[in-house]
Amino acid sequence: MLIEELTMTEFSVGLMKTRTVLIPVGSVEEHGDHLPLATDTMQAVEVAKKASQLVPLFVAPPINYGNCRSTSCHPGTISIRTATLKALVYDIVNSLYVHGLRNFIILSGHAGGAHCLALQEVGEELLAALAESRVAVVTEYVLAKEEGRTLVETPGDSHAGEIETSRILHSHPHLVKGTGQEEYPNFPTGILVRNKRKFWPGGIWGDPAKASSAKGEQIEALVVAKVVELVRQIEAFTE
User: Fold this and answer.
1) How much is the pLDDT for 198?
2) In angstroms, how far is CA 33 from the centroid of its own chain?
């Protein structure tokens, strides 16, 4: 059930079927010269929609912005502070809780370190504040990486590489502009840099040339299955 498409009556009826909601979190972030800036959001939303077709599940409108540190100097990246991200998630979950939702799955399509840590932190805060809540925080990329390991040819593939290019070739092929060049970032260990693009000029981490729509379809299906499994786990979870 896509919340943005429901009437208030349909929302109330939906609460009789499930008290679980999935909140997709994405980013507006460079993904090389070949993938759209909303790649992370698109992947999380596609998975959420497909999971909701398999199990009773509310899907909230996505949070389209995230914290993007390593790509902040690349054209098109729009980054928000982790404090802003935490406040957004907190307020959205709190409002959904008031309306009767109890199980919250925060599914991030963006895998930035500070971004993911912020989501985990706010998840802990929500657990403490909302007595009847259950909260899961999962990075969609991790599910894709782990579940699709046998399908991926590129060791260490990550941002805008084989996995993500395959995913978008499957879900939004009209938005893919070629395949991009193989590249890996070269940041100095431990040193924070101002000119991040100097150490990662093309914004790709992996080899997009190895991507295919068929791989993308298989990886997406694996991630959907893991999300469905997570829905069932959180609904049955007790402490």
Assistant:
1) 96
2) 20
